[in-house]
Amino acid sequence: MRPAVSISPLTSVTILRAHSVAEVQLFLILTPCPACGMVAQRPRGGVVAPNANHDDFRLYAACARCLRDYPSVFVIDPPPRRGPGGGTMAINPTERPSEIIDLAGWITLYRHITERVWREMDKHTARRLAWEAGLCLDEALKFYLARENFPPESAFFSSRSLVTFRANRAQFDRRIVLHHRSQAPQLTDVETRMDGEHERSWWRFWQKHVEPRARL
Length: 216
What we know:
The structure is a single chain. The chain is an alpha+beta fold. It has a domain of 107 residues. It has 6 helices and 5 strands, in the order ββαβββααααα. The chain has a 5-stranded mixed beta sheet, covered by helices on one side. Helix 2 runs antiparallel to helix 3 and helix 3 runs antiparallel to helix 5. The longest helix has 19 residues. It is globular, with a radius of gyration of 18 Å. The C terminus is likely disordered.
């Protein structure tokens, strides 16, 4: 991934901008730990507002294997909302594409979650996972320009994903993405209400709030 970054002038910490906690969690699923190389990074603690105005919500991460902190800090914008009805929230409530996960990343996540759907024995859970897979395609579609069936090369943040696109261009045809999106279920009002009553996490697949066992 090619995260959109900025450097804090006070701490020289690299800041990655995300649209939600779930987007950060999905980014970490795709990103190996820079220290040990394992894909085992998790958010560390909850979202915090580091100033009195609460206009800058941040999330930190660490590797669950080697326990080292992820070197960047995630800023959540728009600010996360609390309250019931979380099952209807989107990964990215804006129309802007992700700045930390590129088009190839969203397609990879869709395929990964879909594989879980086929292995899931519980019908309700499988339906929920299929819905979440569809959300990833919603994010992928934000990279396409109006009336264009193929994405611009700027939709790919790394040389590896760009090479994949150039070698498999047909797989990134908007019409194919839309076809797969049409196969994903939409949650009914009853399903959404039931999830809220049971306080289930709306990001069931990628919920990975695991506090590291110790600090180095």
